[in-house]
TrEMBL record:
Entry superkingdom: Eukaryota
Molecular function GO labels: calcium ion binding
CDD domains per the UniProt record, alphabetical: EFh
InterPro entries, A to Z: Ca-bind, EF-hand-dom_pair, EF_Hand_1_Ca_BS, EF_hand_dom
Protein name, UniProt field: Calcyphosin-like protein
């Protein structure tokens, strides 16, 4: 598994969008899940050729629900690695700040009325435009809602920076 993570980073696959693009590329039959053969081919495309038994070990590790396929969520969770406690804590603080109605998901209404995007890097946008862009970035399954897992997956792709740098980055992004 570490070989796969290292190869992804080496190829600049360091965030959720790039991981999604990669998954769609190696998902040969476009069914949003990977078979063992698709994973093997995808790893080969990355320049990471492994013996069949090692590919199977990685596949089994990725297939958390024993479905004999690896879905998008399983893939993201496995390859993103783990965030430190400090990183997880600051992400959860940001998530809670954005989830204005305390529903457990961030939706358009939380963002459009609940968060002031003025002063952010894209301050030329209205709050409504910024909310739509936020949903495009974080909402991996495109259902119009950002779950905690989607939010954490997004930031997990950036968690390789030092704790101090990561915490400052998230604090600055969400005015914490």
């Amino acid at each position: 598994m570490e070989k796969l993570r290292s190869k992804l980073l080496e190829n600049d696959v360091d965030n959720i969008k790039k991981l999604g693009d990669l998954l769609r590329k190696i998902d040969r039959d476009n069914d949003d899940v990977l078979s063992v053969s698709e994973l093997a081919e995808g790893m080969k495309d990355l320049g990471l050729e492994m013996p069949e038994d090692e590919v199977m070990e990685v596949f089994i590790e990725l297939d958390k629900n024993d479905s004999n396929t690896v879905d998008l969520q399983e893939f993201f969770v496995a390859v993103r690695g783990c965030m430190s406690e400090a990183q997880l804590d600051i992400c959860m603080r940001a998530y809670q700040k954005l989830d204005k109605d305390d529903s457990g998901v961030i939706d358009f209404d939380d963002l459009k009325d609940g968060y002031d995007f003025q002063g952010a890097a894209r301050s030329v946008m209205s709050n409504e435009e910024a909310a739509k862009r936020f949903l495009l970035m974080f909402d991996s399954n495109k259902d119009g809602k950002v779950t905690k897992e989607e939010f954490l997956n997004y930031y997990a792709g950036r968690s390789r920076m030092s704790d101090d740098k990561f915490v400052k980055f998230v604090k600055a992004s969400w005015k914490l």
